[in-house]
Design brief:
The chain is 27% helix and 32% strand. The chain is α+β, with helices and mostly antiparallel strands.
C-alpha cells in the first residue's frame, strides 16, 4: 500500500428527514442546535462513528482494517496486546511505546485515519490522525419536534396491575422535519506518512462517506442520505491554496420560496464555482 503524497480538503453535504441525526445527551437527547442561530449541529465524533461502522461492516474487522474505538471495547486490552507482539516485547521502555504505536497504526484503521490517545494501560503513545472533520452545521435553522409515542406493553407485572391490564408505556421521540447539513474535512499527507495511512485507506474513506448512511438506518435517525462530496486535490503535500478559499467555492441556494420551510433535498441546489453540478462525488484539482 503506497502512502498518499498530496493534501486534500473536502466539503460534505448530507441531510435528514423526520429523524434525529445526533442527539444531545445534555439536553434529553434533543437534536443538537446552536442556541444563538438555531442551526442544527452534528459532531465530528458522530460522523467518525459512522465511518468506523462502515469499515467494520465492509471489512469485517479483519486486520489491518480492525477498529480500535468499537462498541463495548476495552481499550487497554488492545493496547496490552500491542505490547505482546513480536518486535515490541523485547525493546527498551521508550522504544517499546513507539513500536506499540506503530503496531496499532498498522492494524487499526481508525487509529491511522483519525488518530487516538493510547497512553493508558501499558502505553502505546498518542497518534494525530491525517483526517480531521469539523462539526456539521445545517445550512438553515432547524426545528426540533417532540412526539409522544405509545408502546402497547409494559415491562413488569406490577405496571400491568397498576394499569388494570391496559398495559401502555408512554415515551418521547425527537425529530428534525428536514435539515441539510454541511461539514468540512482535511487530509494531511505529512500525518499520513507518520501513521501509514495509504491510498487504499483514503479510497475506503471516500467510499465510506458516500455509503455509510445506507448501513446506519434506524427508527431514531429517520431518513439520512449522503448528498455531495466535493474533494479538492492539491498538487503537493503542502497544498496550493488555503482550505477556506476552496470551501468558499462550494455554495448552495434555495430552489423554492425561501419564506417556506425546506422539506426536501430538491428545495436546494449545490453549486461549485457558481454552477450546479450533478455528481455526488467530485474531485477538483487545485493548481
Amino acid at each position: 500500500m503506497s502512502a498518499i503524497e498530496k493534501r486534500y480538503d473536502f466539503v460534505y453535504f448530507f441531510d435528514v428527514k423526520d429523524g434525529n441525526p445526533n442527539g444531545d445527551p445534555d439536553a434529553g437527547n434533543l437534536p443538537r442546535i446552536d442556541a444563538e442561530t438555531g442551526m442544527g449541529l452534528v459532531t465530528d465524533v458522530c460522523l467518525k462513528r459512522k465511518v468506523r461502522n462502515y469499515v467494520t461492516v465492509t471489512k469485517r474487522a479483519n486486520r489491518p482494517f480492525d477498529i480500535f474505538i468499537k462498541e463495548k471495547g476495552v481499550l487497554n486490552l488492545l493496547i496490552d496486546e500491542a505490547h505482546e507482539q513480536k518486535g515490541v516485547v523485547d525493546k527498551e521502555k521508550g522504544e517499546k511505546t513507539e513500536a506499540a504505536r506503530r503496531w496499532m497504526c498498522k492494524n487499526y484503521y481508525d487509529v491511522r485515519t483519525f488518530g487516538a490517545v493510547m497512553s493508558t494501560g501499558k502505553n502505546a503513545g498518542q497518534v494525530r490522525g491525517p483526517i480531521q472533520l469539523t462539526f456539521a452545521r445545517s445550512v438553515e435553522p432547524i426545528v426540533a419536534l417532540e412526539h409522544s409515542i405509545t408502546r402497547m406493553a409494559v415491562a413488569t407485572e406490577a405496571e400491568a396491575e397498576k394499569q388494570s391490564g391496559d398495559n401502555r408505556t408512554m415515551g418521547r421521540k425527537y425529530t428534525v422535519p428536514y435539515g441539510l447539513y454541511r461539514t468540512h474535512g482535511f487530509v494531511s499527507a505529512h500525518l499520513a506518512e507518520q501513521t501509514g495511512f495509504s491510498t487504499e485507506d483514503l479510497e475506503l474513506f471516500w467510499k465510506a462517506m458516500q455509503e455509510m448512511f445506507e448501513h446506519d438506518h434506524s427508527a431514531a435517525r429517520g431518513l439520512m442520505c449522503a448528498r455531495k462530496l466535493v474533494v479538492f486535490e492539491h498538487a503537493t503535500a503542502l497544498g496550493n491554496k488555503p482550505a477556506h478559499e476552496l470551501f468558499a467555492r462550494v455554495t448552495h441556494k434555495r430552489t423554492n420560496d425561501e419564506k417556506k420551510p425546506a422539506r426536501e433535498y430538491t428545495d436546494y441546489e449545490i453549486l461549485l464555482d457558481g454552477r450546479p453540478f450533478t455528481e455526488t462525488f467530485k474531485v477538483v484539482s487545485v493548481n
